[in-house]
Automatic annotation (TrEMBL):
GO terms for cellular component: plasma membrane. Keywords: Cell membrane, Lipid biosynthesis, Lipid metabolism, Magnesium, Membrane, Phospholipid biosynthesis, Phospholipid metabolism, Transferase, Transmembrane, Transmembrane helix. Its cofactor is Mg(2+). This is Digeranylgeranylglyceryl phosphate synthase. Its main location: membrane. Pathway: Membrane lipid metabolism; glycerophospholipid metabolism. The keyword Lipid metabolism applies. Signal peptide: none annotated.
């Protein structure tokens, strides 16, 4: 624990805190998407509209957990972001590292306080997920492939948490599988994108310990598996509103094939951003598919 807090020394001086950096550091668009996936998990599992107050709490727990995780991730990634992402709040001096750490703990605490109202199981699930986000940022992220899988597990757990919030699982299990697979692919692509900065800091990501080509092959494999997994909800009776997944699958296939052809950082950057957009469209597709359940594709 002492080692954990040692980096609090040597904080950037000479710049006033930018208030907007408190919003920027949590990456609200990512948190919003995560919260919606949690709500979607609840809707898909419930096969109808559960109590609105429970949906709101699910959203807040997931949003705040994601916000806390993103913030503490930037705290631990300060040195590497100085190279790879110098415009983020901490490298550019908009926030102190100390404030970022305390801010992340506050976000975690707020999220857990809301999780309490969903029951003991939901609270323990949220606490476990929050703990994993912290451990990932602290220790797991530099580990080749292990860190990628940890992030993907957290993403896959999000719809399951929403389902847990309404007391059912149902179709949310399929959403969790797709979310897990596509995020393994995206995390590996992000490592390929950041390979030069990671090398300079001695990180041991998958493209460094193997090669960008082999990492791209693994990322593409998980992309292809995502497309296959996206067919499972059709067999389970998801509705006509799921049709936009055709576009999602096309985007995932293109990104995966591009990586196989050119496993370069700039290609990986475009591919991982394409998967991020595809994930957002997939959330909408699952939502409308759940609403239209009974109207066959």
């Amino acid at each position: 624990m002492v080692k954990l807090f040692k980096p609090l020394r040597g904080l950037p001086q000479g710049k006033l805190m930018e208030t907007r950096a408190l919003l920027e550091i949590i990456r609200p668009h990512n948190c919003l998407l995560a919260g919606l996936v949690g709500v979607l998990g609840a809707l898909v599992a419930y096969e109808g509209v559960p109590p609105i107050d429970r949906l709101l709490i699910v959203f807040l727990v997931v949003f705040l957990g994601c916000a806390g995780g993103n913030t503490v991730n930037d705290y631990f990634d300060y040195e590497i972001d100085m190279i790879n992402r110098p415009n983020r709040p901490l490298p550019r001096g908009a926030l102190s590292r100390r404030l970022a750490l305390y801010y992340s703990l506050l976000l975690y605490a707020l999220g857990l306080s809301f999780a309490y109202f969903l029951g003991f199981k939901a609270f323990i699930f949220a606490f476990s997920a929050y703990t994993l986000t912290f451990i990932y940022a602290w220790k797991l992220k530099p580990l080749p492939f292990v860190g990628n899988v940890a992030v993907a597990l957290l993403t896959g757990a999000t719809p399951i948490y929403g389902a847990l919030g309404v007391g059912r699982i149902g179709l949310a299990g399929y959403l969790a599988i797709c979310a897990f697979l596509v995020n393994v692919a995206r995390e590996i692509m992000k490592d390929i994108e950041d390979v030069e900065g990671d090398k300079r800091l001695g990180a041991r990501t998958l493209p460094i310990v193997s090669s960008p080509k082999k990492a791209a092959e693994i990322a593409s494999l998980f992309g292809f598996l995502t497309v296959l997994a996206s067919l499972l909800p059709i067999r389970a009776g998801i509705g006509l509103g799921y049709l936009p997944m055709i576009l999602v699958d096309g985007m995932i296939l293109k990104a995966s094939i591009d990586m196989l052809k050119e496993p370069r950082p700039e290609v990986a950057g475009r591919a991982q951003r394409a998967l991020k957009l595809a994930t957002f469209i997939a959330v909408v597709s699952f939502l409308f598919g759940a609403i239209t359940k009974g109207v066959g594709i």
